[in-house]
Hints:
- By secondary structure, this protein is of the alpha/beta class.
- It folds into 2 domains: 46-192, serine acetyltransferase, domain 1, CATH 1.10.3130; 207-328, Hexapeptide repeat proteins (UDP N-Acetylglucosamine Acyltransferase, domain 1, 3 Solenoid), CATH 2.160.10.10.
- 46% of the residues lie in helices and 12% in strands.
- It has 10 helices and 16 strands.
- It has helices at 2-21, 24-34, 52-66, 81-110, 118-131, 133-150, 157-163, 165-181, 187-199, 250-254, and strands at residues 202-203, 208-209, 214-215, 222-223, 228-229, 234-235, 240-242, 262-263, 268-269, 274-276, 281-282, 287-288, 293-294, 303-304, 310-314, 321-325.
- It has a 5-stranded parallel beta sheet with strand order 1-4-7-10-13.
- Strand 15 and strand 16 form a beta hairpin.
- Helix 3 (52-66) crosses helix 9 (187-199).
- It is globular.
Amino acid sequence: xxxxxxxxxxxxxxxxxxxxxxxxxxxxxxxxxxxxxxxxxxxxxxxxxxxxxxxxxxxxxxxxxxxxxxxxxxxxxxxxxxxxxxxxxxxxxxxxxxxxxxxxxxxxxxxxxxxxxxxxxxxxxxxxxxxxxxxxxxxxxxxxxxxxxxxxxxxxxxxxxxxxxxxxxxxxxxxxxxxxxxxxxxxxxxxxxxxxxxxxxxxxxxxxxxxxxxxxxxxxxxxxxxxxxxxxxxxxxxxxxxxxxxxxxxxxxxxxxxxxxxxxxxxxxxxxxxxxxxxxxxxxxxxxxxxxxxxxxxxxxxxxxxxxxxxxxxxxxxxxxxxxxxxx
Length: 328
């Protein structure tokens, strides 16, 4: 008897599900009709947008070449180094040139731009990026050394290369910045947003960042497009190097203008600090303390800290309050 009841219940539930599915054709027609709504966005009939899986594969291949032996699938030694590197570089070139051609052709067709010989330009640009790898390796090595020398928790350079999210974000940024400066659309931003999604560190590929850039911890860091960051700068978590609030329709008015701060050499910015505005300059060797909010420039060799907060301790038994000024 119980089985019959259960079986009848299952049949009823199955029939109910079928009734709901019968509504789908009408819903689909409504969605299709909305494709003609000019208030919304669609990408129908245009060159398909590249997939993030291809970008991830490209970044992985870059890291394999930039840090030989660290991210390879096999042991690298004198016996196979030439073969392994030759294969990795040729694979990277193929992936990179395909991605660049793809975004160039996408913009050419979708936005009606004048033909720029997408395939030829894509191959040429990919080669320029590959040719930049030796200098890029030197730059990243300085970033690794800066992180190691300033972080007592780092036990080795290997630990930083393998596990520090800050170095991963910087690595992706430095590659994307080369592509950005070569005029490649979309792809640089997609790359840095991939790093952002994994690390919580948002560095725009258009930012200008000097050597020995160190991101400590990293979560919540934002570095805007027109930011200029000098040599040997250290930034802690939840720091924003951003733009002031923009007026309506500012996209077209201010696109290309300097909207983000300049951070000069040897500056340290502690966690939670917010520095805003294209005219704001943090002078060399300055220290910006935690939770500081800055929209004005700071001269070199300046320390900027919040006034020490007053803490209140409440004890339940005595119901007394004890005020104490926190000493930073």
